[in-house]
Amino acid sequence: MPLDDERSLAEQIAAAWGGPPRLLKNALAAPLFTPAEFIQALSTTAQAMAEGRKEPFGRANLAGRSPAIHELMAFFPAPDVRSFEQYQAQVGRAFPGAEFSVILDKVDVALPSIRRKLTPALHGLFDRVGYPARGIHSCIYAGTYSSTPFGIHMDDCHVLMATGIGSKQMAFWPRAHFEHRAELVRAGSPAHAGEPLAALLAEATILEVGPHDLLYWPAGEWHVAVNDSGQFCASLSIGIYHKGDTVEILRKAVALPPAPAANSDHRALDALDLDGLSAASAAGAGTASPERLRHMWDELREAMEAPHAAELAFAAHALGIRTSAGFGPLPDPAGEPVCDDEDGLVGAPHRALDWTAIGDKLLACAHGRVFAFQAHAQQASALLARVQGGETVRVAEFAALVPAQAQPALRAFLAHLRSDAAVAA
């Protein structure tokens, strides 16, 4: 575990919370990721994108512009690239002398060790400042760029930053600094074009974070990365979205059917039946609606009018944040069996498993993955308590409480309780 003292670190971050940017020197016993792990994250992200998965996701900037698709591939390791030095050489050959940046979104999915390392300290922090309403988002920002490509900006999240390769300088201005300087503000962010960056940096607080340091800054703080050395740097940012709105919970709870893929079926345009609607209107028969739309509408109404629907939606959101330290559900293991009846579940970490009874249902959550036991709430609660207490409980004992159509979702949930899926908390 690279965190020198998780409780002390949580206390330091909590003490800085909401105040000006603060650099916690030598807070980490070791970097949160290594050059080799950075290459692993790049390769995993490239594979996920090639397979069409939503996360992790990578993007790049080349000399101030978005690279073309054929250029983007050069920012991800070729099959024969094994080391960071080989990766640097690959990018250097493709774009000699050009500054660039690579951003890996949801990098905890590409590099699970980040989640394992940070989860205990994040739980300790959230015990003191409250769990984030919208969870957290992890990114790696890497490259040789002289300043953040999209300029000085502010975010609506608190941020924790650490570097894995090299050191990084961050410049900060308080929120009020640009309030009366409208000539610098464009689309919500001060634009460099209005005044040379050097002049703005003279008014900034600049902090440099190294591989053993942790940097904190609050939501709403203007900031930009600066690098006058031209050296490669890779840093991890954990955005903590502490504030949120109940509408976000509603959007997550009410699952609308996904939109069809572009050009997947040109005949889908016929679903509107415009001729039929026009004919019905002309005949005075009232406005019709497609049968599929009515069916989806009825299903949606039924879901929202179910007993305790609002309470279940909020509990699912809250338990998902709390049991995952804001990261969200663990990714499903690719190519592995989910859970066989004879598999044993033993001793989930205390923070990783939680449950609550709402009406006649039991809502359970493991590492951010939620499952609702529609019946047998007391029996399910007793089984979960045994797992949390360190007893071995067979999957078949849970499966006996759930109907056949819910078995796949149950087993995906239980897979999050296996020892090889555990995140120490």
Explain what the structure shows.
By secondary structure, the chain is of the alpha+beta class. Helix content is 33%, strand content 20%. The chain contains 14 helices and 17 strands. It has helices spanning 6-16, 35-50, 69-72, 84-94, 107-110, 112-129, 197-201, 246-253, 274-282, 291-304, 309-324, 377-388, 395-399, 407-415; strands at residues 22-24, 57-62, 100-105, 136-143, 158-165, 168-173, 185-186, 189-190, 205-209, 214-217, 222-226, 233-240, 344-346, 353-358, 361-366, 369-373, 392-394. Strands 1-10-5-12-4-3-2 form a seven-stranded antiparallel beta sheet, with helices on one face. Strands 9-6-11 form a three-stranded antiparallel beta sheet, with no helix packed on it. Helix 1 (6-16) crosses helix 6 and helix 8 (246-253) packs across helix 11 (309-324). The longest helix has 18 residues, at 112-129. Mean pLDDT is 85; it is low at 419-425.
